[in-house]
Specification:
about 85% helix, single chain, rod-shaped, about 80 residues, mainly alpha
Amino acid sequence: TALVLNENVGVPNKELEAAKVKIAKLDAANRELGNQVVDLKGKTENFAALQGDVNRLNLQVTELEGQKKELKEGLEKLRKDMAP
């Protein structure tokens, strides 16, 4: 005798199909979320790199402001020394 197994035993066909559709939708949503995570990681890395650039530029600005102050002081001293 042959034993025939039926996947649908105890589960109506409509419920099984509905479950398959729901699983497919959840799989698609999961893939979309995975893509968003990858995108956000990339954006985070870009932001960190840009923030590093901003920090370096801020340091350069601070250094240049200090040099500017020194040059102004030197110029004032020269003007005083050259005054009659």
